[in-house]
Amino acid sequence: MANPQDYNYNFYNVTFPAEYVAHVEINRPEKLNAFVEEMWQNLALIFRKLSHDPNVRAILLTGAGDRAFTAGLDVQAASQGFLTTPSSDPARTATANKRHILDFQECISAVEKCEKPVLCVLHGISFGLALDLSLSCDIRFSTTTTQFSVKEVDIGLAADIGTLSRLPHSVGNMSWIKEIALSARVFGSEEALRVGLVSRVLGGKGEAVGEALKLAGLIATKSPVAVQGTKEILNYSRDRTVADGLHYTAVWNAAMLQTQDLKDAMLSGLQKRKATFSKL
Amino acid sequence: MANPQDYNYNFYNVTFPAEYVAHVEINRPEKLNAFVEEMWQNLALIFRKLSHDPNVRAILLTGAGDRAFTAGLDVQAASQGFLTTPSSDPARTATANKRHILDFQECISAVEKCEKPVLCVLHGISFGLALDLSLSCDIRFSTTTTQFSVKEVDIGLAADIGTLSRLPHSVGNMSWIKEIALSARVFGSEEALRVGLVSRVLGGKGEAVGEALKLAGLIATKSPVAVQGTKEILNYSRDRTVADGLHYTAVWNAAMLQTQDLKDAMLSGLQKRKATFSKL
Amino acid sequence: MANPQDYNYNFYNVTFPAEYVAHVEINRPEKLNAFVEEMWQNLALIFRKLSHDPNVRAILLTGAGDRAFTAGLDVQAASQGFLTTPSSDPARTATANKRHILDFQECISAVEKCEKPVLCVLHGISFGLALDLSLSCDIRFSTTTTQFSVKEVDIGLAADIGTLSRLPHSVGNMSWIKEIALSARVFGSEEALRVGLVSRVLGGKGEAVGEALKLAGLIATKSPVAVQGTKEILNYSRDRTVADGLHYTAVWNAAMLQTQDLKDAMLSGLQKRKATFSKL
Amino acid sequence: MANPQDYNYNFYNVTFPAEYVAHVEINRPEKLNAFVEEMWQNLALIFRKLSHDPNVRAILLTGAGDRAFTAGLDVQAASQGFLTTPSSDPARTATANKRHILDFQECISAVEKCEKPVLCVLHGISFGLALDLSLSCDIRFSTTTTQFSVKEVDIGLAADIGTLSRLPHSVGNMSWIKEIALSARVFGSEEALRVGLVSRVLGGKGEAVGEALKLAGLIATKSPVAVQGTKEILNYSRDRTVADGLHYTAVWNAAMLQTQDLKDAMLSGLQKRKATFSKL
Amino acid sequence: MANPQDYNYNFYNVTFPAEYVAHVEINRPEKLNAFVEEMWQNLALIFRKLSHDPNVRAILLTGAGDRAFTAGLDVQAASQGFLTTPSSDPARTATANKRHILDFQECISAVEKCEKPVLCVLHGISFGLALDLSLSCDIRFSTTTTQFSVKEVDIGLAADIGTLSRLPHSVGNMSWIKEIALSARVFGSEEALRVGLVSRVLGGKGEAVGEALKLAGLIATKSPVAVQGTKEILNYSRDRTVADGLHYTAVWNAAMLQTQDLKDAMLSGLQKRKATFSKL
Amino acid sequence: MANPQDYNYNFYNVTFPAEYVAHVEINRPEKLNAFVEEMWQNLALIFRKLSHDPNVRAILLTGAGDRAFTAGLDVQAASQGFLTTPSSDPARTATANKRHILDFQECISAVEKCEKPVLCVLHGISFGLALDLSLSCDIRFSTTTTQFSVKEVDIGLAADIGTLSRLPHSVGNMSWIKEIALSARVFGSEEALRVGLVSRVLGGKGEAVGEALKLAGLIATKSPVAVQGTKEILNYSRDRTVADGLHYTAVWNAAMLQTQDLKDAMLSGLQKRKATFSKL
Question: Where does the signal peptide begin and end (chains A, B, C, D, E, F) (predicted)?
Answer without folding.
Answer: none
